[in-house]
Amino acid sequence: MWARPEAVWGLFSVAERDLGVLGDVRDLDVLELACGTAYFSAWLARAGASVVAVDLSGDQLATARRMQRRRGPVFPLVQADAERVPLAAGRFDLVVSEHGAAAWCDPARWLPEAARLLRPGGRLVFLTNSHLSALCVPAGEGVAEERLVRGQREAYRVQWDGGGIEFHPSHGDWVRLLRRAGFVVDAMHELYAPPDGGDHPFYEIVSAAWAARWPAEELWVATRG
Ligand SMILES: C[S@@+](CC[C@H](N)C(=O)[O-])C[C@H]1O[C@@H](n2cnc3c(N)ncnc32)[C@H](O)[C@@H]1O
């Protein structure tokens, strides 16, 4: 992912060039929450943004640091909880999170934190699993089925049989949570797999055939009021 020349979104690599969600990021102050190996930050830094990337995991950040040395560019990496980021308020024009905070952090905590970190008029862009896919993936792991396996309200906080908790609020919940945190919702893009695409090489949560029929991921865009 660090080697990719430009930004793509999600399991099936929808080009940012086609979606146009981020726009021109040159000279923007950008924060990535739950950055993992920080490849998304690398893409934005190469496009001219001034980036800071945050993750809870020292191991993920060690990989990010190794990739910075190997491929560049270098930007600050901060080990912290996305629900409590040790950075000054109102410092960023754009907060992004790609399969990060939205699934792993409590939305009642990380959305207000994202709002605190943004300047008025700043944007929040996050990618997460679709609410529909969360309704179709059995708790004992596995791949999204073509039937609903849990109730809509149960998906808000999913406890997987193998351990781990994920948050998959409904669309109504997201709108309410975003508004409560001071955001105005601008868009929600539903991402599909291309009709002729293959399965993802290691993320097995949805098959390409499933994701060609139903959106596997949601890309939310909101502005801080
Ligand atoms: C799917 S991964 C990262 C996504 C990233 N785009 C990537 O693929 O490398 C999710 C990340 O969320 C991080 N994470 C989980 N809970 C977190 C929290 N409370 N605060 C910050 N990061 C968290 C994990 O350490 C992990 O790196």
Automatic annotation (TrEMBL):
Q: Which GO-annotated molecular functions does the record name?
A: S-adenosylmethionine-dependent methyltransferase activity
Which Pfam families does the UniProt entry name for this protein? Methyltransf_11
Presence of keyword Transferase: yes
GO BP terms, alphabetized:
methylation
Keywords per UniProt: Methyltransferase, Transferase
Keyword 4Fe-4S attached: no
Methyltransferase type domain mapped to chain residues: 31-126
Span of the signal peptide: none
Q: What is this protein called?
A: Class I SAM-dependent methyltransferase
Q: Which organism is it from?
A: Nocardioides iriomotensis
Q: What is the lineage of its organism?
A: Bacteria, Bacillati, Actinomycetota, Actinomycetes, Propionibacteriales
